[in-house]
Amino acid sequence: MKSHQLDQQKPSSSSPMHDEKFVEIDFDLENEQENDPVLKIIRGWLVNNLKPIWSEISKCSPIIKYFWNRIESFEIRDGILCRKWESERGDNVTWQKVIPENLKECVLKQLHNSVTGGHLGIKKTLSKVRQRFFWFGVRKYIENWCSKCDVCASRKRPNRKPKAPMRQYNVGAPLERVAMDIMGPLPRSIQGNNFLLVIGDYFTKFVHAIPLKSQEAEVVARTLVDNFISIFGVPLQIHTDQGANFESQLFQELCKLIDIDKTRTTVMRPQSDGMAERFMRTLENMLSSFVSNHQKDWDKFVPVLMIAYRSAEHESTGVSPCRMMYGREINLPVDLLFGKSPDGPKSSISDFVNDLEHTMLTVHEFARTNLNFASDAMKKNYDHNIHLKLFNPGDPVWYYQYQRKVGVNPKFQRPWHGPFVVTHRLNDVLYRIQLGPKKKPKVVHHDKLKPYLGDHGPTWFS
Length: 462
Known about the structure:
alpha+beta, Integrase_cat-core, Endonuclease III, domain 1, elongated, single chain, five-stranded mixed beta sheet, 462 residues, 3 domains, Nucleotidyltransferase, domain 5, Retrovirus_Pol_polyprotein, nucleic acid binding, SH3 type barrels, Integrase catalytic domain-containing protein
């Protein structure tokens, strides 16, 4: 019997199909159908022109019952069991070759995995298969095949973007939690500054910005002590990203020395430090309104623009950062020009201290209420379309890690890496994952993960 090939022309050595991804298959389809336990029975019915009665079929498998109910659609043509398939309009008839169980994988390697398959989606792959072949449960088989394809999963995003609910972190006193970040590199100023160190208090929204000539860990640590801690005091907690200057041993030792709890954002998750990120965007807009065309004088505007920001009412607290930090509003040039409304007379220093203390308590309580309302409103808006998928230790996952590489076009990169394995669930949104037993673990956010459905999951973790 003549052998049948899924591809009739053998690719040449210069063809793009001449690689390990192009699967050559040579087999005797008639013989493979005869050796298949199910198709052998169906072929026997057609060869003998005999359809069994239902009592003989009722105890058989669902596959045989399927063929029995539709036996009129099957026919042996040139020795091959085929299925008659008509288009929806009935104007086109195709005879599909019935594929035995042991050749399904070969067909999908040709029509999906190979260069001529192109790793297309479920719908296109199913269309290619139906033009040529048939087997029981073909759609489900193709859906399962495409979902488990490692090449497709490493490139294509999930059908529904993962999104965990927002975790709230509310503070209730000044300097309870402070955010730090580096803005830059910026154009080198006349004074030689390239960077801007941003330090902001989560409760009062009081932000300090200091121009820097370098972002080295020693410079950042010294600036923090000289320009913030020496003026406002030691914060209970400092929250930063995973920049080398903040993760250095020098900065870590500084935090231990003065008893500061040091926390950090997760990888590729700037939303974790949203306060600093949002302020830097505001400061960029403010600076762009005043810098010269040569952009080398940006640092001289920073101190004055800080006055403008701190003296304005903050949307979350309902009061200005200066009033939150100092208990009063600061004088602006307009107050010196037109005069400021006089305060009531203070009979003594103790009365002034008592009034200031009462004012601070009232303002802070007012701000706490507004902060809680703002936090709840933000969470409600963010959680509108959440899609939470909880992972357990031992689950294989893909990790989204988009990185630009020199000489590599990002259009052809595969941003999903893996399969990683979840080694520990820190909370509902943070996981510790690891690529191998000798690889360094990573703490990542839920939104950067998706389930691994392939057949090559990690086996080293137990």
